[in-house]
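Dear support,

I submitted the protein below through the web form. The confirmation email said the job was done, but the results page showed an empty box. After a refresh the structure appeared. I'm attaching both so you can tell me whether what I see now is the final result or a partial one.
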Amino acid sequence: MTEMRLVVTGAAGRMGRMLVRAIHETPGAKLFGALENAGSIALGQDAGLLAGVGATGVKITDDPLAVFVDAHGVIDFTTPAATVAFAGLAAQARLVHVIGTTGLTDADLSKIDAAGRHATIVRSGNMSLGVNLLAALVRRAARTLGEEFDIEVVEMHHRMKVDAPSGTALLLGEAAAEGRGVALGERAVRSRDGHTGARKAGDIGFATLRGGSVVGEHTVIFAGEGERIEFTHRAEDRSLFAQGAVKAALWGRGKKPGVYSMAHVLGLD
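What the results page shows now:
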């Protein structure tokens, strides 16, 4: 099979440059296109030079149609509005669309699900092996432990992160809810302030911390009477997310249209 021709969105950003490097380092993958917003000072620059891997001949553009038409897939860590737009275009072009964007609303997800009728979409709040293994363990623990064990998800990220709770925290909360057989939206508690009263049995709580340059730390706590079980993952290098995204793109090539998760990619589902 020929190399998979991949497009990187937000190619001039920190994550975009990491994706370019990950594609450059991955056998079977080839950088084919690089996108940025209209007006970006990076337009016209060589994406490889900007990422520090040498000239690739791939110039950064603001025209997705020009690069989607002959590509095999697109890797997208941008903003919710941009991701929804890219999903529609990827569906038209029948591409593999790997989505690492967080902060997506239910309305955004509905549009992405609709795009999945024609595109092969892999969407995850976190592309790392460790986090997705953690989610599988959380799901099993929640299924095994009764409501006498309270569930709390604690996350910390760098000061520049704009959405909360993090996509990974929500992924872990969803895993806990699935294990309990409940809907996260009906049991999630995202903030506590003032006189809140006693904690309700079965709630899944979230605590959000921001500061410094923390890449990402997540802990899921199962707190029972007289004992506490904690599952923790600490990301120490953002490149692991890029590597996971490229792995997801390669996995998606040739798969039927639909919306998949990293659990499918890693054989955990």
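Response: this is the final, complete result; the empty box was a page-load delay. The mean pLDDT is 95.
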